[in-house]
Write a structure and sequence with these properties.
Blueprint (H helix, E strand, L loop, with lengths): L6 E6 L3 H13 L6 E6 L3 H11 L5 E5 L4 H10 L7
Parallel strand pairs: 1-2, 2-3
Length: 85
């Protein structure tokens, strides 16, 4: 499958439960990405929960941003591993 050479960028805000569900789904169904970049603009409490959860997943980066879909997308694109598609 193409995913082992692909970077997944997830821009999000206050969707901790959805992020965790997605990561578990990928793990359960053996869907591996080269890296997963989560661009988050959540509230303080959501950020703490997300930081603690992300530690359990390798090849996953967490970047914090101000709320803006264009800003989040651009941050994700800047942080992609150069060998990813």
């Amino acid at each position: 499958m193409f995913t082992h050479k692909t970077t997944l960028i997830i821009p999000t805000r206050n969707r901790f439960n959805q992020i965790v569900r997605n990561l578990r789904y990928f793990e359960k169904n053996l869907i591996y990405f080269k890296e997963i970049i989560i661009i988050d603009s959540s509230d303080k409490i959501q950020k703490k929960k997300l930081v603690n959860t992300i530690k359990n997943y390798k090849n996953t980066k967490l970047i914090f941003s101000k709320p803006s879909s264009a800003r989040q997308r651009n941050l994700g694109l800047k942080n992609i591993n150069k060998k990813s598609k």
